[in-house]
Amino acid sequence: MPEQHVGISKGTWAKLAPRAVYLHIPFCTNKCFYCDFNSYISEGQPIDAYLDALERELQLTVTQVAPPQIETIFVGGGTPTVLTPKQLERFLASVRKAFPDRSNSIEWTMEANPGTTDRDKLAVMREGGVNRISFGAQSFDAQELERIGRIHRVQDVFDSIDNARAEGFSNMSVDLMFGLPNQTAERFINNVNVAHSLDLPHYSVYHLKIEEHTLFHTLYERGELPLPEEDTESDMFRLLMETMQRAGYRQYEISNFSRPGFESRHNNTYWRNEAYYGIGAGAHGYMHGVRHWNIKGVQGYIDACKAGLPHAETTPVTRYEAMEDFMMVGLRLLDGIYSNVFEMQFGVPVERIFGDVLKRMTDKGLLDRIEFGGKMNYRLSERGIWLGNEVFGAFLGGTEKEG
């Protein structure tokens, strides 16, 4: 049966210190119709008090758990670039103080909404340590942007990237979405082609999910959200993969494409089920075999930081749960999971724990077995990419077996 206590684990999975940091800025100019992230319209919010609280959490975190050399920092939201240049400068300085870049090699990403990054802000970001920007374009179709509640214009994407290049940024990414209301395969692939014209090293392309507590969920429940048919969405995904491959981009994760060497190092932390710090309102963290969730509300977070770490919940992860997570997130990577890494983390061969599932998935043609270094490694097959959820779900709810 699955183990119930972290302390009796074998291997390194619960011992490794985080080398990645996620920081949450929960403020936005508006709430998009599909968004269920922990975000709040910035007008009237106590932003400076929030930055005080975030700095306090940073100090408490590094005091209680002395960090090693950090390898990646990711600032998400919300829209972090709604901060003023003065607020950005202060925020970035507090992060550098807590997590200094001793090796000058940190990948430091900040999410940005097109139209919120003028030259002054970008100069502050560059000076403050940010070296990678992820722009939330979502679409290059003005009607689609309006339908999903985005307030930026198509031209704002081009202007924002031009400004960023002028300030010395070259490592940039654009987010796109597919499966949007009334979207056709032709309109979607036009978005992809326009995105390619920007000549960026990285693109993330996500399928629209209808999440509870969003306007889209309300419309969906009423039958008032005209989503594309499943076959149309399949055509979109097929055309996406074909177009990206022709353009020289490698699909290194189900939803992510890059030129060689420009994969998101930070997101690889999640896909490899490695530890990370989570700082800010509603942020999640994972270290030493324990996951934590911070208080979500802005004022509640501010108040909690005055008394200590603002954790709303902490949950020990059993060794077997960590194994399940390793398989589910690791198989999102097109390189798949490496048996030697699994054995290093958990002290047992992957086949001893998941042999039945691995055989069933390979027999169904959803996983490929690849021999490397004398070990069998596993990755999604070409067919398995289309049926990823079936594969991931197969690793849930099993029983730990150790002979």
The CATH superfamily label of the largest domain reads Aldolase class I
Strand content: 15-25%
Q: Helical amount among residues, as a percent range?
A: 25-40%
Give the CA-based shape.
globular
Question: What is the CATH first-level class name of the largest domain?
Answer: Alpha Beta
CATH topology of the largest domain: TIM Barrel
| Whole-number count of domains | 2
CATH architectural type of the largest domain: Alpha-Beta Barrel
What is the number of E strands? Answer: 16
| CA distance, first residue to last residue | 13 Å
> If strands are numbered along the chain, what order do they take across the biggest sheet?
9-10-8-7-6-5-4-1-11
What value does the average pLDDT take? 92
Low-confidence stretches: 1-9
> What is the number of helices?
15
What's the gyration radius in Å? Answer: 22 Å
Output the structural class. Answer: alpha/beta
Write the layout of secondary structure elements.
Elements: E1 20-25, E2 27-28, E3 40-41, H1 47-64, E4 72-77, H2 85-98, E5 107-112, H3 119-128, E6 132-138, H4 142-147, H5 154-166, E7 172-178, H6 185-197, E8 202-207, H7 215-221, H8 230-246, E9 250-253, E10 256-258, H9 265-271, E11 277-279, E12 284-287, E13 290-294, H10 298-307, E14 311-316, H11 319-330, H12 339-346, H13 350-363, E15 367-372, E16 375-380, H14 382-386, H15 388-393
Quick recap:
With about 400 residues, this protein is an alpha/beta fold. The protein has helices at about 45-65, 85-100, 120-130, 140-145, 155-165, 185-195, 215-220, 230-245, 265-270, 300-305, 320-330, 340-345, 350-365, 380-385, 390-395; strands at about 20-25, 25-30, 40, 70-75, 105-110, 130-140, 170-180, 200-205, 250-255, 255-260, 275-280, 285, 290-295, 310-315, 365-370, 375-380. It is built from 15 helices and 16 strands.
